[in-house]
């Protein structure tokens, strides 16, 4: 039980930040492009309680990937629905990539500073958990960004694909959205999607962003996800 709460203390804030900022970014961009549905429903807030999906949050700690309640967007309210849909959908992964980059930059700085601090000092006891939280933030944000780029609606990558396709093909492709979650479950659990695509892309992203601290990111996430 003590181990569980230790892991929770490291994972909770980065996971909530990643999921909350992802959803708020969709609503914020939609609001800028003419749809105020998210603002009207009080979803343009960084208060995680407004976005929390209990099961989706638990899945972060169980399998390493989770979700929040989707921010409502009425694409018909957008000034240019087909074009603007691309930016509204892409806002989520872009936000997560940005958070991953900022976390990696901060982690590298904190880790470099921690090397100059005496072991077992008060400063070291403060810096260690911060470093671990930043390392997990790099991982969870990259994973959310990459996973959401799978081109199957209702994932963001699927909606970007619908926006990019010609009208006839876009209309046909959008019809798979009611079955999208079933397709995603099949891809995740019954194919080698993670082994051949998501994990290599995630490893590459961690190496590019974390540099010499990439080993720390991998070791921290392996420890937390046991």
Automatic annotation (TrEMBL):
GO terms for molecular function: peptidase activity. It is a multi-pass membrane protein. One of its GO terms (biological process) is proteolysis. Keywords: Cell membrane, Hydrolase, Membrane, Metal-binding, Metalloprotease, Protease, Transmembrane, Transmembrane helix, Zinc. InterPro entries: Metallopeptidase_M50B (IPR052348), Peptidase_M50 (IPR008915), Rip2-like (IPR044537). Residues 130-189 form the Peptidase M50 domain. The chain crosses the membrane at residues 51-68, 88-110, 130-150, 178-198. It is found in: Cell membrane. Its cofactor is Zn(2+). It comes from the Bacteria. Its main location: membrane. The keyword Zinc applies. PANTHER family: ZINC METALLOPROTEASE MJ0611-RELATED (PTHR35864), ZINC METALLOPROTEASE YWHC-RELATED (PTHR35864:SF1). Belongs to the peptidase M50B family. This is Site-2 protease family protein. It comes from Geomobilimonas luticola. The lineage of its organism: Bacteria, Pseudomonadati, Thermodesulfobacteriota, Desulfuromonadia, Geobacterales.
């Amino acid at each position: 039980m003590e181990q569980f709460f230790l892991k929770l203390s490291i994972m909770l804030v980065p996971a909530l930040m990643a999921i909350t900022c992802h959803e708020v970014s969709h609503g914020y961009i939609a609001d800028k492009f003419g749809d105020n549905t998210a603002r009207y429903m009080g979803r343009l807030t960084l208060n995680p309680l407004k976005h929390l999906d209990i099961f989706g949050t638990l899945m972060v700690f169980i399998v390493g990937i989770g979700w929040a309640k989707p921010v409502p967007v009425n694409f018909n309210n957008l000034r240019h629905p087909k074009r603007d849909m691309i930016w509204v959908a892409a806002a989520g992964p872009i936000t997560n990539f940005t958070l991953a980059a900022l976390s990696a930059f901060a982690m590298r700085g904190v880790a470099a500073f921690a090397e100059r601090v005496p072991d077992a000092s008060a400063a070291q006891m403060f810096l260690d958990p911060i470093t671990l939280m930043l390392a997990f933030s790099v991982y969870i944000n990259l994973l959310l960004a990459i996973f959401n780029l799978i081109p199957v609606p209702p994932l963001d990558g699927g909606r970007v694909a619908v926006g990019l396709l010609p009208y006839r093909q876009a209309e046909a492709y959008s019809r798979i959205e009611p079955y999208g979650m079933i397709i995603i479950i099949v891809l995740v659990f019954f194919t080698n999607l993670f082994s051949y695509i998501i994990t290599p892309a995630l490893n590459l992203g961690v190496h590019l962003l974390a540099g010499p601290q990439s080993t720390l990111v991998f070791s921290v996430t392996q420890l937390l996800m046991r």
